[in-house]
Structure formats: structure tokens, C-alpha cells
């Protein structure tokens, strides 16, 4: 395998860890826990893993640990640092007992079900230290929900002598981990389950999990690109750049990138929903900022748009809900061949409000709303080109205003979508350190005989040696939500808190950013070597949340 100079230098980087993980470790148990909501229902569904205590890893005495075989699964979308979780897991296991083995299940959860795996040896692990991507074993989105899947997993683990499985994933993947842990306890099969918090979207967080891994790196990659575009816009002075950013269920990425780059406009989906804004309201907000800059002779700028915006506009949310119900298993719709015929069919089947809104949308966006659904039965939001929708609608609004004498500028727009560019980037120092520490923490939870826990590392605005490692019961994060027409236990997604410090800082400064000529920030590329204040900084979100 050929490597770049950075790859070679980066492979030698030794991640920093909490001081407690550097020597012998013991587990300190805290208070019992309860779920974040729906306590009665969650306790009934998870009688064996509900109410477990929060754990902290602290210095302890040297102990003897028997060799143990562990399996690891990468689940869901890629996030920078996943390889370092596996490296930390491998090193942690070998430190406890060099005869221990680590098996990687290939292609995500389906590898466990189908018995597709490979042993991860030192030679393999060393090739992937401090690298981006999930290519060491691959990932997948197979949901672990059926009893036969769990039983297949038991048989595969028996074959390999595996006593613990580590699932690296987001909220849905760790919900699956919790269900699996409960089932294996009920079956008394002796297989532990530990989860690790992964998602670039940043919506797997709570009072214990301060951030999911990959968020730091992805936001820094996107912010570099946004900064480059802003520098170009400030040079050419003739384009408005509409930039859509990943984040279907929450606007954490958009908010963090706004804090890092200070664009002229950033839409926060949660605020749109709170204020019950219409699509036209959002269009007028953007057009208003463009018109205000035009009065100063500034016909350029940047606008950040979260991927999931469409689903947060209340009227659009109702439309999408109707479309989900209408199109689920609808063979009649599938049989229609032409786009216009399909459009007219949908218009005729919706309620009056939804039909009028659907008919008002540009035909391309309307078609995207009726594409194949995702595995949860929902519209594939990432395929909806919201930035193009807004460019078209803002352009029409500005043309109307020009006729009315309310706008005297020139509007030329370019669209961008930053998604995959950030998912497999070489992890930042923060994510490299954080992920490696999560992997080592997972081995200690396994050694302590724990199951149904998520490995956690917190106090993340302090130097890495001061980070606190431990475990949080997955049931503590769960609530009941309607999925595909049924109430199911799931980890509660963390949305942007409109009364939280990051959003309040953004809200206090955005009016200035909208019209100013010199507030753009150009973050530049991620720095891997150099002073700590340049290379090791956490996100602006974490800094503001913890006032660091």
C-alpha cells in the first residue's frame, strides 16, 4: 500500500489518553440511573439492564486477566476516528492479556449475522492507526431487531470463543446494542455488549456523553471549505454561496461551522420549528439579509443550510408525514411511469393544505420528496437539494422585491453540498485521542464484566490527561418514539438547544455577521503537528458549553 508523507508521519502519532488509563485500572460505581423519559416502559422492556450505575475508571491495583476474545462491529455511516477506537480496543486487550484476540465483523452488523469476520492482528492494526474511514472491516446499516439475528450471533460467537462484542455506532446502532445486551442476558449466553458513541451529526450527546466522535474532524473539514469559499467570495465579490451541510435530525454541524467561520446567514432547523416558520418565512429571512448587504454594495456572501431543514418546517413536516403514509407499500404509485403523472397522482391524494404546498414546490424538489424511502420508512432527506430549492425561491423573491423597489442588487448564486467530504477525513488530534481513549475504555468495561454500557470519555475541554473515562448505561439515554407506525425504544436524539450557550452566542452575533465586511473567519486545514493551541482544540460548541 502506497502512503503519502502525511500518512507515514501520522501513523507514528501516539494518541494522548486520560491519566487513569495509563496504568492499572479499577471500576468505581456511582448512583443508579433511570431512562431520560418513559421510565416505566423502558424498565419493562429492559429489566436486566435498566437502572445500572454510572461507572468511572480510576487508578487501581495490578490484576490478572484471562485471555478473552472480543468482536467489533462498525455500524452506520462513517465517522473520522473509527479506526482509532479499534486500535485502542486492540491495544487495551493485549495490555490486559497478550493472548486475547480481536475479531472484526465485516460489513457492519450483517457480518455478525452471516458469520463474516477476520481476526485483527497487530500487522493489520498498525496499517490503520490514526487514519480516517471504516475500511479496516467496513460498515453497514443492517438493523439488529429480530430474534433469529440475535441467535445467529450467539452461534458465531460460540464458534470463535467470543465473550464480548463492541458496537461502534450512532443512536440507532447503540439502541440495537442495548436490545442485544438485554437479550443475551436473558439467554444467559455469557456475551457482553459495549457501545461506542459515533456520528458526525453530533446528535448522540447528553449529560454524560459530551460529544460523539467524528463531529470534531468533520466540522473542521467543512469549516476549512467554507472558509476557502468565503475568501473566494470576498475576492470575487459577485456570488452568493448556498452551502448545505450534513445533519438530518439536528443542526449541530451547521451551528458549529457557523461558530468557526461566521457566515452571513446560517439557518438553524430547531429555531425554524420553534418559531413555526413557513418555507416562505425562511426564504424571506435569507432574501432580507441579501437585500441588506446589497444596500452596502455587497452582492456576495455565504449561507449555511442544515441537511434536515425541510423536515423542521412544520408545514413541510406535515407534508412529508402524509407522503410517508401515502407511499408506504403503494404499488399503484410505483406502477405510474411518468414524473408528471406521479406528481398529479400525489396532488390528488393529499389533504388540501399538503396538496397546495406540494403543488407549489419546484418539480425537481417535489420529485425528490417521492423517491424511495430510507430503511426507517422516511423520505431520504440527504437526496433533497434544499440549497437549490432556496436559491430558486430566493431568486424569485428578490425579483419581486426589485419590481417593488425594495431591492437594488445583483443576485448570482452557487450551490454546494458538503457531506461525504468530512466522513472519512484523517481524524484531528482531538478525535484521534478521544477515539483511542474510547477503545481502551471499552476494554476495561469488558474486563470488569459489564454489559449494556456505552464507553464514555468526558471533561473534554481539559487536556487529555485530565479527561475522565467510564461507562454510562445505554438505557439511561432511551425513550419511546414512534417508528414506522409503532412505539419503539430508542436513544433520544440531542437537538440544538436554543437556550444553550452555543446557540445564544450565535444568535447574539449573527446580525453583525450578516452585513459586516470583515467578520469572515478562514480556519484553514486541520493541523496535526505544532503547538497544542493550534492542533488539539475541541469544537467551539464544546468550549461554549463548558465555558472553556
Write out key terms for the chains shown.
single chain, 548 residues, alpha/beta, 9-stranded mixed sheet, 15 strands
The amount of beta strand, in percent, is 15-25%
* Total helical elements: 23
* Rg on CA atoms, Å: 24 Å
Portion of residues within helices: 40-55%
- The pLDDT mean sits at 95
- N- to C-terminal distance: 41 Å
Poorly predicted runs: none
Principal-axis shape: globular
Number of strands: 15
Largest sheet, described in full? 9 strands, mixed
Structural classification: alpha/beta
- Neighbour order of strands in the largest sheet: 1-2-13-12-7-6-3-4-5
Task: Give an account of the 3D structure.
This protein has about 550 residues and is α/β, with parallel strands linked by helices. Helix content is about 45%, strand content about 15%. The chain has 23 helices and 15 strands. The strands form 3 sheets. A 9-stranded mixed beta sheet has the order 1-2-13-12-7-6-3-4-5, sandwiched between helices. It has a 4-stranded parallel beta sheet with strand order 9-10-8-11, with helices on both faces. The protein has a two-stranded antiparallel sheet with strand order 14-15. α7 links the parallel β6 (about 160-170) and β7 (about 190-195). α3 runs parallel beside α20 and α9 packs across α21 (about 500-515). The two termini are about 40 Å apart. The model has no long low-confidence stretch (mean pLDDT about 95).
Amino acid at each position: 500500500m502506497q502512503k503519502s508523507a502525511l500518512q507515514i508521519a501520522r501513523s507514528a502519532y501516539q494518541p494522548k489518553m486520560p491519566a487513569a488509563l495509563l496504568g492499572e485500572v479499577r471500576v468505581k460505581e456511582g448512583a443508579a440511573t433511570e431512562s431520560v423519559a418513559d421510565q416505566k416502559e423502558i424498565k419493562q422492556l429492559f429489566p436486566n439492564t435498566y437502572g445500572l450505575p454510572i461507572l468511572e475508571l480510576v487508578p487501581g491495583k495490578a490484576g490478572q486477566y484471562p485471555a478473552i476474545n472480543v468482536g467489533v462491529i462498525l455500524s452506520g455511516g462513517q465517522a473520522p476516528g473509527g479506526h482509532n477506537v479499534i486500535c485502542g480496543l486492540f491495544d487495551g486487550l493485549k495490555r490486559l492479556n497478550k493472548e486475547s484476540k480481536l475479531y472484526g465483523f465485516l460489513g457492519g452488523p450483517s457480518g455478525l449475522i452471516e458469520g463474516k469476520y477476520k481476526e485483527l492482528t497487530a500487522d493489520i492494526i498498525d496499517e490503520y492507526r490514526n487514519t480516517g474511514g471504516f475500511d479496516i472491516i467496513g460498515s453497514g446499516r443492517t438493523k439488529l431487531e429480530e430474534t433469529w439475528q440475535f441467535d445467529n450471533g450467539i452461534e458465531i460467537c460460540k464458534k470463535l470463543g467470543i465473550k464480548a462484542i463492541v458496537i461502534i455506532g450512532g443512536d440507532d446502532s447503540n439502541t440495537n446494542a442495548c436490545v442485544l445486551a438485554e437479550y443475551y442476558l436473558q439467554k444467559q449466553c455469557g456475551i457482553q455488549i459495549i457501545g461506542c458513541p459515533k456520528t458526525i451529526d453530533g446528535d448522540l450527546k447528553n449529560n454524560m456523553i459530551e460529544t460523539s466522535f467524528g463531529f470534531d474532524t468533520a466540522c473542521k473539514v467543512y469549516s476549512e471549505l467554507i472558509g476557502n469559499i468565503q475568501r473566494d467570495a470576498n475576492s470575487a465579490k459577485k456570488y452568493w454561496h448556498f452551502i448545505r451541510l450534513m445533519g438530518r435530525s439536528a443542526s449541530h454541524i451547521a451551528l458549529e461551522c457557523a461558530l468557526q467561520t461566521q457566515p452571513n446567514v446560517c439557518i438553524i432547523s430547531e429555531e425554524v420549528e420553534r418559531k413555526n416558520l413557513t418555507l416562505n418565512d425562511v426564504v424571506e429571512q435569507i432574501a432580507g439579509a441579501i437585500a441588506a448587504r446589497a444596500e452596502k454594495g455587497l452582492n456576495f456572501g455565504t449561507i449555511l443550510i442544515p441537511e434536515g431543514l425541510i423536515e423542521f418546517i412544520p408545514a413541510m413536516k406535515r407534508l412529508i408525514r402524509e407522503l410517508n403514509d401515502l407511499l408506504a407499500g403503494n404499488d399503484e404509485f410505483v406502477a405510474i411511469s411518468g414524473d408528471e403523472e406521479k406528481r398529479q397522482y400525489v396532488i390528488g391524494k393529499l389533504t388540501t393544505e399538503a396538496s397546495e404546498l406540494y403543488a407549489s414546490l419546484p418539480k425537481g424538489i417535489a420529485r425528490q420528496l417521492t423517491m424511495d424511502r430510507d430503511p426507517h420508512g422516511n423520505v431520504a432527506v440527504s437526496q433533497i437539494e434544499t440549497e437549490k430549492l432556496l436559491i430558486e425561491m430566493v431568486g424569485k423573491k428578490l425579483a419581486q422585491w426589485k419590481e417593488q423597489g425594495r431591492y437594488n442588487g445583483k443576485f448570482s448564486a452557487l450551490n454546494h453540498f458538503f457531506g461525504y467530504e468530512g466522513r472519512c477525513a484523517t481524524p484531528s488530534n482531538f478525535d484521534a485521542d478521544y477515539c483511542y481513549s474510547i477503545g481502551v475504555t471499552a476494554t476495561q468495561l469488558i474486563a470488569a464484566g459489564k454489559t449494556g454500557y456505552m464507553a464514555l470519555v468526558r471533561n473534554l475541554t481539559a487536556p487529555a490527561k485530565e479527561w475522565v473515562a467510564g461507562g454510562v448505561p445505554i438505557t439511561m439515554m432511551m425513550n419511546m418514539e414512534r417508528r414506522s407506525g409503532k412505539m419503539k425504544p430508542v436513544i433520544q436524539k440531542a437537538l440544538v438547544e436554543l437556550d444553550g450557550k452555543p446557540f445564544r452566542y450565535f444568535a447574539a452575533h449573527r446580525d453583525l455577521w450578516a452585513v459586516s465586511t470583515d467578520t469572515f473567519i478562514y480556519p484553514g486545514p486541520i493541523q496535526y503537528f505544532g503547538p497544542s493551541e493550534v492542533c488539539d482544540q475541541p469544537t467551539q460548541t464544546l468550549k461554549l458549553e463548558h465555558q472553556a
